[in-house]
Amino acid sequence: MNFWSGLGIGVFVTMLTGFIFIRPIIKGVLANFIKRIMKERYDKNIWEMITASKRYTPIYNIENSLRAETGKVINRPFGSPRKFVNFDGLIFSPAQLAVMATPQGTSIDTKIQIGPRASRPLKLDMPILLGGMGYGVAVSEKVRIAMAKATAAVGTATNAGEGGFLPEDRKYARHLILQFAKADWSQKEENLKQADAIEIYIGQGSHAAASAKIYPENLQGRAREIMDLDPEEVAILPSRHKEMNQKEDLKQLVNYLRNITGGVPIGIKLSPGHLIEKDLEACIKAKVDFISIDGGQAGTKGSPPILEDDFGLPTIYALSRAIHYLEKRNVKDQISLLVGGGFFTPGDCLKALAMGADAVYMGTAPLWAMTHTQVVKSVPFEPPTQLTFYAGTQTHQFNEEEAAYYLKNFFLSFVEEMKVAVEALGKTSIRMVNREDLVALDELTSQITGIPLAYKKAKS
């Protein structure tokens, strides 16, 4: 018998001996535990945790514990865990015989244009854009640089969000959308003049139009300087624009921005509610070039759960109503419609485009894609946001070149998959995909979207 055979036998004997002696102990402990569950009254029975969790979920438990700890408003990252009605109730109808599939090797056009009646429309190579993630108020400098480089590499746009104007954004981005937000630091003319499009920020799906505060301990360094904040000044994100006291003031603001930026598209970002048609009418009268609808599933750097869970129409509701109203007013071909909020797959993005959106913007999915394997620098002891958020404790470990590479691949893969779908629909351009390519799988989705059901009711 050689050494390794002897060692193997020794290990086996040791394990077998341990199992023989430990088994009765495990059996005894388990038997005692089961007897206690079966016999003890509920107020002393650990089983109450199971029954309670069926109506008082771990999410509610933890968040209420956080409220109990501080007595202050809590802010939850990445939006609502609530299950909204989404695009799962829609399916594409493949081209086969009645409609022939596109021949293999045919080039699929993915280019789009935002703001067709603007003097300088925004022309992109793909219909997927990055949503606003502000420097300082949300993400770090390294994240912003990675976003700028990746979007430039694939020919799409990055959005500066509500944060301070980072010069590197303009340096590395090919197409840069600047938000005209409600704080003074986002309204400097010398910065706005560098934009390829301006998005007037009114509200977002996961935050509505509520105000927010960022305290000095969470906003130090370069961002504080760029935002012109005093050392101990609290950064205030107001709930409304000081230039707008009534909806009619929007037109004057649009004209001002159009004049100082030389004709780039001027748009507006809205959190859709039940008054969405009235909000859209105000946009039409102000002659905006595009409208960004941010549905209730939208993500955020951090918002109170009451705003994330209980405000804003689900994205599919908002998109359906917006398209219907713009068509009713005969401006759908004049005003580009962008939509965001809960988009995680190429299929859902293409469904939104088929319904009538001109482009889809995403935030949460690209942010996770760009961290990719870098998450191992944080987990399991810290959340990955510590790598990417401005006030994170691990931002120095974030590699922006790796992030830019993986984010570029994410966008390329998304669009290549959408091209496959366009080919399977018998089309040659992503802009050719329309509502006739879709069917609804359930009555609710059909009623929401106006898209016919895939099945026909039997005649009585």
3D structure, described in words:
With 460 residues, this protein is of the alpha/beta class. The chain has two domains: 3-56; 87-449, TIM Barrel (Alpha-Beta Barrel). Helices cover 40% and strands 12% of the residues. It has 16 helices and 14 strands. The chain has helices at 3-39, 48-53, 58-70, 141-154, 167-172, 189-192, 222-226, 249-261, 276-285, 305-310, 315-328, 346-355, 364-371, 385-388, 400-424, 443-449; strands spanning 90-92, 112-114, 122-124, 128-130, 157-159, 175-180, 197-201, 212-214, 235-237, 266-270, 290-294, 336-340, 359-362, 438-440. The strands form four sheets. An eight-stranded parallel β-sheet has the order 4-13-12-11-10-7-6-5. A two-stranded antiparallel ribbon has the order 1-14. The protein has a two-stranded antiparallel sheet with strand order 2-3. A hairpin with a 7-residue loop joins strand 2 (112-114) and strand 3. Helix 4 runs parallel beside helix 15 (400-424), helix 12 packs across helix 15 and helix 13 (364-371) packs across helix 15. It is globular, with a radius of gyration of 26 Å. The N and C termini lie far apart (82 Å).
Strand arrangement in the largest pleated sheet = 4-13-12-11-10-7-6-5
Q: Runs with pLDDT <50, length 5+?
A: none
| Number of DSSP E strands | 14
What proportion of the residues form beta strands (DSSP E)?
A: 5-15%
> What integer value in Å does the Rg equal?
26 Å
Structural class determined from secondary elements = alpha/beta
Find the CATH topology of the largest domain: TIM Barrel
Shape: globular
Mean pLDDT: 91
**Count of separate structural domains:** 2
**What CATH architecture of the largest domain would you give?**
Alpha-Beta Barrel
| Helix share bin | 25-40%
